Amino acid sequence: MARHFTAASGEYVDLLPGAVAANDGGPLSVAALWRATTNHTGSIVTSYNAGGFEVVSLTPVGDAHVWHSVGGSFRSTVAYAPGDWRLDCWTKGNGAGATVRCHSLNLTAGGGWIHTDYGTCGDAGTVPAASIRVGDKPFTGSLNGDVAALTMASVVWSDAEVETLAPGLSAWVSLIGATPAALWAFNQADVTDAVVDLTGGGADQVGRNGTTISSDPPGWSYDLSTPLSGALAATLPALSGSLAGDGVLVGTAAGTMPALSGALSGAGQMSGVLGGVLPALSGALVGAAMLPTVPEVAGSVVVRSLSGTVTVH
Amino acid sequence: MTTLQDITLHQGNTEQLLLTITRVDPTEDLTLITGLTVIIKDDPCVTDTATGVTTLTSANPAQITITTQTSSQITATAYLPATLTASPYNRWWRCDAHVGTAYRTAIYGTVTVVDL
């Protein structure tokens, strides 16, 4: 499921800025999984300071391009076509003269990733942001389309890093990592269910006007339990409870296993060398035991007796 | 193969049998043997537990003493009580090698008690 915004109704979702409140447009990566219903002028996402001035904005415009702006400095970037689900990501470095780069993947039409620079831009002087709105932009227009997921992260992602976002939401979580960011999934079953910041940074929904539930983007997974690949840094807390099901442990387990308790049941095999000393066995052996066979034997016998001679005198 | 060997005893004598048990298959191990018995019976067609059957066992060193035991040979001495030869009539005897409750006969034959 995704969220549909109908322009004629001026529909929107208001969010807090959370961990990106202080972000002035660079270093910043903004990614949107979205679809335009028509060529129109609206808003994918815009952040505002307390005075209502824009900090960062991504706005589809009727010229079939998405305009990127930081602190009121606008530029035309990637072209969009109505009906196509798109994964677009804009990155900008810190400070004046930083390159605005757009990374685009058309999920509907296919064709692979396109990475393009769109000039340079400075930072906004309008921080901190006090609010973020998805869908409607006063005095500009309202989004006529769908939004599945959005993120704003205070980092500049490389082309390769952006390309990892394609499979689904879990990849977004993985790429964001510990970076100050806000992450929103618009897969609620009902519009009355609030959109929350999946980073836990507090950029949660604080308002809504309208919107409806729409269909999923093609080949996209909201599943956050998707296995992560690569190395896991830091230390896992001690496991509690029980593990069920089949699994394979690959690699070497370090440390010492605690003593086993309870009973082992079922058939099993142990291969390799057992180090240490087995404790003394207790209890009883149940079942029939096989006795060794008796060797075939032969022999001889000598009767030990006394003997002697006698002489008749 | 079990050895057939007849023995001659003398009436009323306290006799001793010097037993030498050997293996038929050279790959077998006589250290597995847990004991020896010597059974003397009047009639070969009665069970070992019938009345009048005499059983000597190495579990009682006063009855059978195992002198040596290697993988290839066991030597032992069986002590026959005088009461066994009190009456001068022929009997049957055998010597069994045991592994727990299982056994195989090593030597058997007739017992002639010479009447003096």
Explain what you see.
The complex is a heterodimer of chains A (313) and B (116). In chain A, strand 9 and strand 10 form a beta hairpin. With 313 residues, chain A is mostly beta strands. Helices cover 4% and strands 35% of the residues of chain A. Chain B has 116 residues and is mostly beta strands. Chain B is 0% helix and 52% strand. In chain B, the strands form two sheets. In chain B, strands 1, 2, 4, 5, 8 and 9 form a six-stranded mixed beta sheet that branches. A three-stranded antiparallel beta sheet of chain B has the order 3-7-6, with no helix packed on it. Chain B is globular and about 45 Å long. Chain B starts with a strand and ends with a strand. The model of chain B has no long low-confidence stretch (mean pLDDT 90). Chain A binds chain B through residues 291-305, and chain B through 1-3, 5, 7-10, 13, 15-25, 28-30, 32-33, 77, 95, 97-107.
Keywords:
heterodimer; A: 313 residues; 4% helix; B: 116 residues; 6-stranded mixed sheet; 9 strands; globular
Poorly predicted segments of chain A:
226-234
Stretches with pLDDT under 50, minimum 5 residues of chain B: none
Helix and strand composition category of chain B: mainly beta
Q: What's the average pLDDT of chain B?
A: 90
Alpha-carbon distance between the two ends of chain B: 35 Å
Could you state the order of secondary-structure elements of chain B as H and E? EEEEEEEEE
Rough outline of chain B? globular
- Per DSSP, what share of the residues of chain B sits in E-state strands of 2 or more residues? over 45%
* Arithmetic mean pLDDT of chain A: 82
